[in-house]
Write a structure and sequence with these properties.
Length: 258
């Protein structure tokens, strides 16, 4: 399992509610979102990470979801080209921050599009989701970059799954060869050879979590999944993510970890 030392984060801007969303859960309360982001950053530090904090950017209401702007490996940073046109400019700020840590870069180029939320790493193997935001050209560019760096990958088409925006809305890697999935992914050939941990349908949002070093950060309010994680022996940090859920966001979306 990758040992993380650093993370890049960006707090939500005051116009966070003007961002993109595919769900109807109400308008996020900015002050509450800001407080939740502070607790999120505290949790990352509790897991041993040093944070690079980018300034809030009202020019890009979705920019708190920094994960979508890059895919990181131990050796290289791959800059994405987000599938929503309004988000493409977010990559510039991420690149500036990553230049302090990486000397080797790749970048997704047109006509390819790729959101980092469609990429799930499992011990050097990368699952790449084909979605409304990540197209085949972008996914194949990423596959080529990863192969050049010595990593393997597999494509997972989620375009027929209406309940999720990104691949990582329905899959996360717990470590120790365990993949956590929602029911829609059961039986998918890409996941053969892994121990599959299913979340209960009413707790599907819990499928997006963070395994950081020896701890697991989960979204609060999903007691069945939290019990499963504890049963495997992982210390758990539970965080309220209500305001980010209203904007299609989850735990992994809010940071780039390396």
């Amino acid at each position: 399992m990758t040992q993380f030392k650093h993370a890049i984060v960006r707090p939500p801007a005051a116009n966070f509610a003007d961002g993109l969303t595919s769900v109807d859960l109400g308008k996020p309360v900015f002050e509450k979102a800001l407080a939740q982001h502070v607790r999120y950053c505290d949790a990352l530090q509790q897991c041993g990470l040093e944070l690079t904090r980018l300034e809030a950017d009202a020019g890009f209401p979705d920019s708190t979801f920094v994960e979508d702007t890059a895919v990181l490996t131990p050796r290289t940073a791959i800059l994405t080209r987000p599938g929503a046109r309004s988000r493409v400019g977010e990559v510039i700020g991420t690149e500036r921050a990553l230049r302090r840590a990486y000397s080797r870069f790749h970048a997704i180029t047109a006509p390819g599009t790729l959101d980092g939320g469609d990429v799930c790493e499992a011990d050097g193997h990368f699952f790449i989701g084909l979605s409304a935001r990540t197209n085949e050209q972008g996914a194949h560019q990423l596959t080529d970059f990863l192969e050049e760096e010595g990593f393997t990958s597999a494509l997972v088409d989620i375009r027929s799954i209406d309940s999720i925006l990104h691949l990582k809305s329905g899959i996360s890697y717990l470590g120790d060869n365990r993949l956590v999935l929602i029911d829609a992914f059961v039986g998918h050939a890409a996941f053969n050879g892994y121990e599959i941990v299913l979340v209960e349908p009413e707790e599907n949002y819990a499928a997006n979590f963070l395994r950081i070093n020896d701890r697991v950060i989960v979204s609060a309010g999903h007691p069945q999944f939290e019990a499963i994680v504890r049963k495997f022996g992982y210390p758990v940090i539970a965080l309220d993510m209500s305001e980010f859920q209203k904007m299609d966001g989850a735990l992994s979306c809010l940071s780039l970890r390396f």
